[in-house]
Amino acid sequence: MVGLVSQGRLQEAESRARKLLATHSENGMVWKILSVVLVHQGKDAINELRRAAELMPDDAEAHRNLATARRERGEWAAALVSLRRALELQPNDADGIAEAADAMRALGGVREAVALYERALLLNPQLVEARNNLGNTFLELGQNVDAERCYRLAVEMRMNDPVILCNLGNAQRLLGLLEEAKICLQRAIALDSTLAVAHSYLGLVHGALGQLEAAVENFRRAIELKPDDTVALNYLGRVFRDLGRRRDAAAVFERAIAVNPSSAESHCNLGEVLFEMRRVPAAIDCYQRALSLQPRYAPAHLSLALALRQQRRPVEAEASCRAALDIDPNYVEALSFLGELRADRGEFAEAEELFSKAIIIDPGFYSAFSSIATHRKMTTADSKWRRGVETLLGKRLPLTAEISLRYSLGKYFDDVSEFDDAFHQYARANELSKRFGATYNPERFSALVGRIIRRFQPEFLRNCQIGGSTAELPLMIVGMPRSGTSLAEQILASHPAVFGAGELTFWHDAWCRLEEINPDGVPDKSLLAGIARSCLERLTAVGGGSVRVVDKMPANFLYAGLIHAVFPKARIIHMQRHPVDTCLSIYFQNFFNIGPYANDLTNLAHYYGEYLRITDHWRATLPPTALLEVPYEALTQDQESWTRRMLDFAGLPWDPRCMNFQETSRVVITASKWQVRQKIYRASTGRWKNYEKFVGPLLPLLKPASRA
User: Fold this and answer.
1) pTM above 0.85, yes or no
2) Which residues does 519 contact at the CB level (< 8 Å), separation at least 6?
3) CA dist 417 to 389, 682, 691, Å?
């Protein structure tokens, strides 16, 4: 029979073995030969293998053969039992030890698997698969240096193995050796262009290098090769997010969910995109779905906390954040966010303790360094902080990390009056931000402003007011970002009859609906009434029984006419600040979501010019009872006089608590949360003069003619 097998006459050998077993059913060797013949023919041989091992308990090969069949069936525990018996008989069988390591790893015994792989390789250093699998095991343990070493040795033995090259490239990526990883992965793809995972890893490398369009192509290729690869789909969605292509990202995450509805990660990723699109309730639904699938999924708890914070639900936000920390006490992102919640309440010392704790756990956690700089004035005594930031900047970092740290280092230099170094860091941060691909279209923005001005003429507003609401609950604060809107809100929210709701996203959506439903004519009463009703429901929900609820979304300067049409008795406070101080402050702020105009001085000047154009129109169009203009510099010079004017304009009696606004206990989540907890100060007035030699594109804003 052995001769028949060696000649490839497998069916003959099988027939002869079965005839022998009819009369010699206890002959273990015949069972062993039959099982081998069946395996070579691709037939199920598990019963024959088991019988051979039972009848030949001291035959190591019989146990190894049975282990191999059990392994192929995914019966790892049974396979390990057979391998252990085989190794009792042949303790120095390197191949058997390597297979036992594979089984141990599949069963979750990762550290035990390492010891077995190392023992096998000690006996036979040429076991390439074992060395590759040892690298995989080290990777699971987070021992990336050891993994890279294993893969490199395996590549030396098998230079043109695309799988091992792919693994080596991935380990190099995880170690930050991005150029080496790129070369390695490109080589793997050249050897096997159908290796989907290599395309995915190359996409991650391109993403880390800031080459996002190349990353998109890599992930798309991986998905073409493996359409149900939810990992690649989630990678692609994240790159679309980084590019600012949020609708594309949402579509990709929805596809990932369709492929695998049980993926908590995909639901969480979709929620994060919806959150960035300001669809907060829908985002919360996604996070809750993720948690229903995986209750101990810490990222979903943290993302839910972020969304609840945005909804002004700080108690629930903290509970969700703590749920993430209960799962992982060293989850630095959650620790840092808990610090942000403390800072929202003005508890800056407690916040910094949490940021510092996160840095101790992970010295490379850039976000905590940035948060420390954001929430207080830096001094030359912060040398340790500076060294930490500069050390991180000396490494290859993800794009978002480098941008954040350069903004923070710019603030440090600005705080210590090293203005040239400050501007250099801010300029670098803004240039890096442009790599995300979002671009400012001056013509499009000018066209939007033109459409609004043409529509909201005096006669149009008079016709609209026939159907407008008489409610006086809304108190709007508008203006450019960094023009003092947060300060004005903090002052007014210190009044017992006022609730500060922060930056609500209502009016942009209302304008979009109006343009869609009624692009040209006067909207009918039902449309205006519907907008008013939706707005009042939202304000009442957050403001409780307050007489006035402040919405301080700065960009609502675009929609002052619509606001007045819907609420003729609503008050709109327009904060004004020196144009170059305003634009420079925007340029110096890490506004990840404010708009692409913020990262370029020329674009800032254009945007500011359009802001002047439309606010000039409101000044000429809206009645004095609807609009109060408050100069930021005047407010800081004469706080009481301007505070009285704002309260009087809002129809509220004087309250001295508004003078001590920095003592008001409330949640503030804007970038100015630290500043509004300080007494009135004038240090930011005329700040632009420290940077005059750098701000040439903004200087035309100083000329009155620029408003023509």
Assistant:
1) no
2) none
3) 18, 16, 11
CA separation for the pair 227, 250 (Å, rounded): 17
> What interhelical angle do 162-174 and 144-157 show, nearest 10?
150
- Within the chain, all domains assigned CATH 1.25.40.10 are found at 330-436
Residues of the chain with CATH 3.40.50.300: 450-707
Structure tokens at 417: 């009056």
Above 90 in pLDDT, residue 46?
no
Question: Does 675 score more than 50 pLDDT?
Answer: yes
Query: Judging by DSSP bridges, how do beta strands 498-500 and 548-551 pair with one another?
Result: parallel
431 vs 617: CA distance, rounded Å: 33
Cα–Cα distance between 517 and 112 in angstroms, integer? 66
Domain 450-707 in CATH 3.40.50.300? The answer is yes
Residues 548-594 pLDDT 10s = 999 999 999 999 999 999 999 999 999 999 999 999 999 999 876 56
Q: Which helix (H) or strand (E) holds 305?
A: helix 298-310
Which residues in 73-91 are b (16+ Cβ under 10 Å) and which e?
eebbebbbbbbebbbebee
Contact status, residue 24 vs residue 55, Cβ threshold 8 Å: no
Q: Report the top-level CATH class of 330-436.
A: mainly alpha
> H or E element: which one contains 474?
strand 474-478
**What's the confidence (pLDDT) of residue 679?**
62
Q: How far is CA 685 from the centre of its chain?
A: 35
Distance in angstroms (rounded) separating the CA atoms of residues 285 and 262? 15
Q: Per residue, what are the HEC states of 85-121?
A: HHHHHCCCCHHHHHHHHHHHHHCCCHHHHHHHHHHHH
Helix axes 28-40, 60-72, angle to 10 degrees: 40
Q: How many CA atoms lie within 13 A of 423 on its CB side?
A: 14
Smallest CA-to-CA distance from 628 within 680, 575, 577 is with 575
Q: CA 250 to CA 120: how far, in whole Å? A: 47
Quickly tell me which residue has 């254009």 as its tokens: 606
List C-alpha distances in Å: 583 to 12, 28, 483, 691.
Answer: 88, 87, 9, 12
Closest CA to 360 of 327, 324, 329: 329
Chain centroid to Cα 377, Å, comes to 27
CA distance 100 to 115: 11
Residue 132, pLDDT > 80, answer yes
Q: How many CB atoms lie within 10 A of CB 280?
A: 17
Question: How buried is 383 (Cβ within 10 angstroms: 0-12 exposed, 13-18 middle, 19+ buried)?
Answer: exposed
Angle between helices 264-276 and 246-259 (to 10 degrees): 160
Residue 519 burial (CB < 10 Å; 0-12/13-18/19+)? exposed
Single out the residue of 629, 658, 625 nearest to residue 643, CA to CA: 658
Query: What is the Cα–Cα distance from 684 to 588, expressed in whole angstroms?
Result: 13
Q: Which helix (H) or strand (E) holds 627?
A: strand 627-631
Cβ–Cβ under 8 Å, residues 221 and 253 = no
Backbone angles phi, psi at 97, to 5 degrees: -65, -40
Q: Which of 112, 55, 119, 58 is nearest to 80 (CA)?
A: 112
Amino acid 669: pLDDT:
56
Residues contacting 277, CB < 8 A, separation 6+:
246, 247, 250
Per 3-state DSSP, the chain is made up of helix, strand and coil in percentages (nearest 5) of 70, 5, 25
pLDDT band, residue 1 (cuts 50/70/90): low
The three-class DSSP label of residue 69 is helix
CA distances from 574 to 164, 276, 488 (A): 63, 26, 10
